[in-house]
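Worked example 2:
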Amino acid sequence: MPTFSAPDGTLLAYRVTGDGDPVVCLPGGPTDSAYLGDLGGLSAHRRLIVMDLRGTGRSAIPEDTASYRCDRLVDDVEALRDHLGLARMDLLGHSAGTNIATQYAARHPHRVGRLALIAPSTRAVGITITGETRRELARLREDEPWFPAAFAALEAITDGTGDDREAVAPFFHGRWDAAARKHHASSRPSNGEAVALFAAEGAFHPETTRAALVAFESPVLLLAGEFDLNSPPPAAAEFAGLFPDATLVVQPGAGHHPWLDDAGRFVATTAAFLG
């Protein structure tokens, strides 16, 4: 697995899948990027450069754990671009990784060709997702057998009376089948400190980021799953409105990992956007 050195000397790893023009991919979590796989077959269209964020996967744990903060991870992405020798790069982020990608685009707009935000988190731009929005979306699944227990857990999380994240896992998949369960089990974050410090104080500067995105001229894709409680379509639509040239796609029947729920539809949409 190839590696490169971050600005602070931390050794970071990435993997390469597929052929063609590169697209740098940033995972969520922060967790091992293995859960992205080849994004449902997107590697048949583009060469995926999938980064392991510091302290995850095969990337080293930094000496300064404050560097797990989201805004500081932007420097790691810039170091990877420089390592790859790319004047400009297409950039794809998933979930929490979209916060890194968004801040990178705000800070280095001329280094980004196309920006794909998959199941986008909105923390970097300060868009709030209410508990009622999540409840309304969750109720679309009320005919599924796991719904009563999962909805009760969601209510407890929303009300602050519980924190059973495992119980709400079915809401993050378009189908809660054996494949979804296996994927969920294999994609849990293994570095709790990296997760806890990702959103530490100072990680996000929404007003500054939003102001920069107004002038971001490259094309942007925001792809949301119809059933995704983490990144509800209304929040993704508001996010899309911050860019001059953004396309919002809501993938029917999909949750937080749309390449699992319908790989063909996901790849067709994303490959067409990336070109």
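The chain has ten helices and eight strands. The radius of gyration is 18 Å.
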